[in-house]
glucose-6-phosphate 1-epimerase (Chloropicon roscoffensis), 279 residues
Amino acid sequence: MDDKVHIAHPSGARACVYLHGAHLTSWKTASGQEQIFLSKEAVFKPPKAIRGGVPICFPQFSDFGPLETSHGFARNTRWSIFEREGDTVVLKLTSEDDNFLEKFGCEDSFTLSVRYTITDFQLFTRITVTNTGGEEMAYTTALHTYFRVEDVTKARVEGLYRVGYLDSLDGRVMKTEENPCISISEEVDRIYLSTPPTVRLVDPIGKRVLTIEKYNLPDIVVWNPWVDKARRTGDLGDDEYKEMLCVETGCIKPAIKLAPGTVWKAEQIVTSKNNVSIP
Ligand code: TA6
């Protein structure tokens, strides 16, 4: 059985999703432009997470949870296809799919689904978590999206002005964003909390503006490894940090608490404006 699914839109837009981690690795808009970064060194061999694309961090983001596995296990596990038609695919992972208790210490009973839909210039990602157990479950989650940029030193993130963030490069001390636009000239690893519903990623050299809208995903991580961390990352080319910028929407702090038998939904909508001239 193939390990990836292709979805397409009549406009010519198309995307590719691996069953391994329900991992979107490519999204091209109707203009044919690739919006997602994928490392040339990426390893497509479970249980290694694919470097680039959209790793789904669940049931925890980084070490924001009890598991030893950073970013949880959903991104390293094979999901199954639940629904598929044209411009949409729905993939599912349930706690019955594997022994996540023995392997990772996860005691929860859950169903996790992700629904990708594309239009000519938009990517809709809807996440649904159902607590199928008899106990409350707590989790953190994020869409760890590696956006493609032509030159990260010229790119910027807008919309986080005066938002508080945990600086992962400084003991996760709480700081406030003092710049209306976030630009990248060194390693950046920040967890912005309780962010506005919409932010923008501007890629002047690529002539693209990506508008990221989110529902029920209050937090945003901005990450670029820069030179040294890129060199230390085996599945990332030394210079590839220049072509990527992670803007990751999620629920990181506080964790989500889901009562038995209840459902949690969240959605991210990315709209890409291509061939725009940007000052
Ligand atoms: O989202 C930012 C981050 O938590 C960074 O600290 C860095 O570790 C990145 O994720 C990549 O993590 P990974 O486990 O995929 O190498």
About this structure: Residues 4-274 form a domain with the Beta-galactosidase; Chain A, domain 5 fold (CATH 2.70.98.10). The mean pLDDT is 97.
